[in-house]
Amino acid sequence: MRGMTTATTSATGSDALVSQLGLADRVVDADALARSVARCAERNVVLPTFAQLADPSTIDPALVAGVGIDDADPRNLFRVHWYNSLGGGRATVPDHLVLPKELTGVDSPIIVAFGDRFPMITAHKVLAAYSCLAPRIVTGQFDPTRHRAIWPSTGNYARGGVAISTLMGARGVAVLPAGMSRERFEWLERWTSDPSDVVRTPGTESNVKEIYDACNEMQRDPSNFIFNQFCEFGNYLGHYEVTGRALSAVFDHVAASRPGLRLAAFTSATGSAGTIGAGDRLKERYGARIVAVEALECPTMLENGFGEHNIQGIGDKHIPLIHNVMNTDLVAAVSDRATDELDVLFNTDAGRDYLVRRRGLDAQLVSSLRHFGFSAICNVLAAIKTAKLLNLGPDDALITIATDGADLYPSERVKTLSRRFRDSFGEVEAAEVFSQHLACVDTDSMIDCTHRDRTRIFNLGYYTWVEQQGTPLEVFDARRSQSFWTGLRRYLPVWDGLIAEFNQRVAAARA
C-alpha cells in the first residue's frame, strides 16, 4: 500500500487527492501544525491515540474524573470508545445485549453492542468524526485557526463532527437532509452558536447526492474543509481498529460462557461504510461472514438504487468509496416499515407490556430495547435473515451494533403512531407488529454474493466517485484488491506516532 499510495499521489501531483481520502502519513504544512499546537495548548487539548481508544485500559481514568459524559470538554476525547457505561464510567467489556430466540425466532444468539454509550452525541459516529479529524490536525492539513470543518451526513456523523470540532478548538458545520429527525436538529442548535453552521439539504435519508452537491458548492471557499465520511479512509480505519477490537472483546466475553460458540456473521448497515470496516477484522480473526445491510425501499446493492426510505443512519443510492465491497459476503435489505413499527413496539408501554406478558420476555431485556435506534433494529433484522438463510444453529453467533438509541427518534415515533396506527397502539397492534416483523422474518431480498455480484456492486460506485467526484480511476480501481485494504493499516501506527509527537509539542507549549 505504501508504494501504491506514494506512486498515486506523486503521479497525480495532487495534495487534493490526499485531502479527499484522508491518507497523509507526514506533516504537509508545518505552519498549520504549529498553529494547531498553539490552539490546543491554549485550550488544554490532548489527543488520544487509536491504540488507546481500541484499548481504553491504557487510559488513566483520572483524565476524565469530574467530567460529564455530555460536557463540551476536551477530556471527553478520551471517552470516544466502546467501553463507556451509561453514566460515563469505564466498563471492562463494551456494554451489549444477547438477544434470545423468544425475541428473534432463531436459535443463533444475536449479540448487539450499544453505541449510545459514546459521549456527547449518544452515538458511535463520534468515533468516525475523530478518526477523520485527528489525522488531519497532526499532519497539518487542517488548521483550526482558519478552517471550518464541514461534516456531511444523514445525521449522527454531522453531530459527531460538530462535537469533535468543538472539543479540538475548531468550528464545525453540519450538513444534513432537512427531513432528518427533529431531535438531531435540536442537538445541533445547542452545540452551534451560528445558525449558518447547520446546513439543511433537500430530502431525507436517501438523498446523499444532494449532500455532495452542497459540499461541492461550499468547497469553493478555501476556508471550508470537507470531511466527507463516504470517502474518508480514516473512517474505515477507525472502525477497523477500534470497533473491530471492541466487538472481538464482546464476542470473546460471550463465548467464554458458551463453549463451542463461533462467530458466524457480522451485520452492518452500510451508511458511510465506516462501521462495516470492523467486519474485515472479524472476518480475519473468526472467519465471520460480512453482511451489508440496506433499506428495502431503496435497494442500491440489490437492484442498483431507486426510491426513498426512512431508516435514518444508513444512507443509500450510492456505494461509499470506503466500502470494501470485494470482501462483503452477503447483502440483506430491510423494510423501513419494519424498523418504524418495531420502534413503536419497543418504546411504548403497550408494546413493552405485550413483550413481557404475552411473549414471556425478561422485563430487563425488554427495557434494554430502548437502546435500539432505527439502524440498530435494521441490523438485528438483517441478522435474523442471515441466520435463516445460512441455516445457522445455537452454536453460531451473529454480532452487530446499535448505532444509537431510541432517544433520537420520539418525533419519528409520533409520526408512525399517527400515520400507521391512528394514534391507537394497544395489545392487538403490538401483536400484529410482532407477528409481521419478528415472527415472520423471511429471507427475501438477500444475496449470498458471488464474485460477479461483488463486481457489479463495486462497479456501481464508478459514476459517483470517478465521474461525479473526480476520484482518479487508478485509486478507485485499486480498491478491488484486498492488498489495498490491508495496506491501509500501516497508517494507524504512523498516525499514533504523530499524535504522540503532537501531544509532546502541546505540553511543551503549555509549560
Textual characterization of the structure:
- The chain is 48% helix and 11% strand.
- It has 511 residues and is an alpha/beta fold.
- A seven-stranded mixed beta sheet has the order 1-2-10-7-8-9-11, sandwiched between helices. Strands 5-4-3-6 form a four-stranded parallel beta sheet, sandwiched between helices.
- Strand 4 (171-177), helix 8 and strand 5 form a beta-alpha-beta unit.
- Helix 10 packs across helix 11 (278-286).
- The longest helix has 24 residues, at 233-256.
- It starts with a helix and ends with a helix.
- Mean pLDDT is 92; it is low at 1-13.
Topology:
Layout: H1 2-12, H2 15-21, H3 30-42, H4 50-54, E1 96-99, H5 101-104, E2 110-114, H6 125-138, E3 148-152, H7 156-167, E4 171-177, H8 182-191, E5 198-201, H9 208-218, E6 224-226, H10 233-256, E7 262-269, H11 278-286, E8 289-295, H12 300-303, E9 330-334, H13 336-346, H14 349-358, H15 363-368, H16 374-389, E10 396-402, H17 410-421, H18 427-439, E11 446-448, H19 451-468, H20 473-478, H21 482-488, H22 491-510
Parallel strand pairs: 2-10, 3-4, 3-6, 4-5, 7-8, 7-10, 8-9
Antiparallel strand pairs: 1-2, 9-11
Helix pairs in contact: 3-22, 6-7, 6-10, 7-8, 10-11, 13-16, 13-17, 13-18, 14-18
